[in-house]
Structure formats: C-alpha cells, structure tokens
Amino acid sequence: HLNGRTLAPAVAPPSGSTACSVPCVRGSAIQAAVRFLIYNPAGADVIFLLGVATNSLVLRRLCLSPCTMNSTAIYMASLSTTDLFFAQITFTLKYISLYGGIFFLVCIAVDRYFAVVHPLASTLRRLRAARVVSGGIWCLVLGLSVCLPALRLAASHQNKACLLDPSSRHHRTLILLFLGIALGSFLLPTLVLLYSYCRVLSVLSKMRHRCRSNRHGHLHTLRVIYSVLGVFLLCFLPYHINLLGYTLTHMKLLPHCGLAKATKAMHPVVLSLASFNCCLNPLIYYFSSSPVHREVPSSGVSGS
Fold first, then answer.
1. How far lies 8's CA from each of 19, 33, 162, 254, 286, in Å?
2. Which residues is 5 bridged to in the sheet?
3. Which of 34, 246, 255, 292 is the least crowded, having the fewest Cβ atoms under 10 Å away?
4. What range(s) does the G-protein coupled receptors family 1 profile domain occupy (predicted)?
5. How many CB atoms neighbour CB 210 within 10 A?
6. Contact at 8 Å (CB) between 296 and 215?
7. Ordered structural domains, the chain, with CATH
8. Other CB atoms closer than 10 Å to residue 289's CB: what's the count?
9. Residue 43 or 118, more confident
C-alpha cells in the first residue's frame, strides 16, 4: 500500500524464467515514472525537524547580516529556502527541491571558483550574476512544480491497469525520459562541482606553501571543501546509482531478479540519505560563510 494506492502484481515473466515479483502501481503513467523518485521514507519526520531547524538558523543569520550580503550569501539563502521544501507534504515539491538544492550547491562551488581562482573579477558583477542565476533556477524549479502536476492530471485519464508494463512503449518512454532527466540533473552538476572545487584546492595548496602565516585558515578551508564534496557524494551518489539499477531491472532492460529486489529494498535508505542533505548543507555552510566567520571569531578563520 503506497500513498493510498494498492500495489498490484507485476507482469508475468516469460515461460521458463524464474518469477520475480516486481510491483506496479495503479494510477497515472506519470506517477509510475516518478513513483520511485518521490517515495516518502520512514525517517521523514526526523529530516523535517532537523531541516527546518538548521535551514531556519542559516536564513536568520543571513537576514541579520545584510551588510555582508555577497554572491555566496545569495546562493546560501536560496539553497536553504530550497531545502525547506523537503518539509512539505507535496511529493512533487520534494522531488523538485532535491535537484534545486543540487543546482544551488553547484552555484556556490562556481562562485568559490571565481573568488579563489579569479579573485580580480568584479564583485558587483558576481553579485548581479548571483541574483540572475538564482532567479533563473527558482523560475525553473517553480515552473517544473507547476508542470508536473498538470502532466500527472492529463495522464490520469488513460486508465491503464498496470503502469509498469514493459510492453507499453508509451510507459517505457515516460520512465526512461524521467530517468534521463534525473541522471542528467545529477551528473552534469557533479562534473561542474568537482572541477570547480578541484581548481580551488589546487590554488589553495599553492597558497599554503607560499604563505605559512595563514596556514590554519587554509587548512580550515580545505576541510570545508572536503566536507562539502564528501556530503554531496555520500547523499546523492547512492540514490542515483540505485535509481539506475531499479529502473533498468524493472524495465526488463537488465533482467536480474536479485538486483531488482535489492534496489527496491534499498530505496528508502538511499532516499533518506539524499533527503538528509538538506540538514547537513546548512551546518557546513553556516560555519564556513563570510557572515558567520565575522560572528564567530573563535573559529580563527577570516571570511573568504
């Protein structure tokens, strides 16, 4: 039983093959395509409480420090606001906020890339660009949150008996389309994020050898970057690997009964990890952003 809908038996396997029970959901084709991506994990209440507390703390600090507002602060505010959508009940908003958060994490990485690798870039131009980019991402996120329910409503009139039907070309196209969008929305930003932080790490490593007086500050910055990369990959990589395996096995493109059952069982775990990112992000950036460095002098690190 999932979201008020009854799970139905999967399409029977070909004769002579081993039966592998893969459930499907009655409803719209769009629901079948995104059902796996927007499953509500058992730990949603814990994530809700932690996410609201940590992101509200970051937004409060940013609002109380208007004089230190810069491009990074704009992206941080957008990231925290996006993460707060995980507290919503609407499944579509949860799914959209997941990738909206990824986009803003990449924006912060690119902003730090220009700040460290190209420090002579105009601050005013970067601030203006941050507002434009943040506005564009918000338009994309809100646009998708409006379009997906409309598509879901339009598809609900098809009255299909079993939506995960391998013989239905329309269903296969929809599911593969959502898979491609999900993987592309993760892989491309990941490449940009890795490149940006690798270049930042390279420059900081050279600066650490040249300037030994601020070695503690450089080491702190390196730890922050490693923490960001570690949390990003830990939260999002298992989810998308599991998503790929789940889709390929349930679409019969990779017929493997054991893998199908394993990916289905692991789904609540990996989605909980992906959702928990909304709690970890504010903690990392809270202690590494310029406004906070000025408010927490005990850290001993100047804002960057």
1. 15, 16, 7, 21, 46
2. 2
3. 255
4. 16-285
5. 6
6. no
7. 7-289 (1.20.1070.10)
8. 25
9. 118
Q: In this structure, how many other beta carbons lie within 10 angstroms of the beta carbon of residue 206? A: 10
CA distance linking residue 186 with residue 28, whole number of Å: 25
Alpha-carbon gap, residue 172 to 189, rounded angstroms: 26
pTM of the predicted model as reported, rounded to 2 decimal places: 0.66
**Tokens matching residue 297:** 């002098």
**pLDDT, tens only, 173-214:** 877 888 888 899 899 999 999 999 999 888 888 876 666 666
pLDDT at 27 over 70: no
Give how far Cα 292 sits from Cα of 108, 132, 152, Å: 16, 24, 43
Amino acid found at 70: N
Least Cα distance to 115 among 221, 186, 188 occurs for 221
How far apart, in whole angstroms, are the C-alpha atoms of residue 77 and residue 246?
A: 34
From residue 211, alpha-carbon distances to 13, 96, 216 in Å are 66, 43, 11
pLDDT of residue 237: 94
Q: Do the beta carbons of residue 171 and residue 163 sit within 8 Å?
A: yes
DSSP string, 148-214: HHHHHHHHGGG--S-SS-TT-HHHHHHHHHHHHHHHHHHHHHHHHHHHHHHHHHHHHHHHHHH--TT
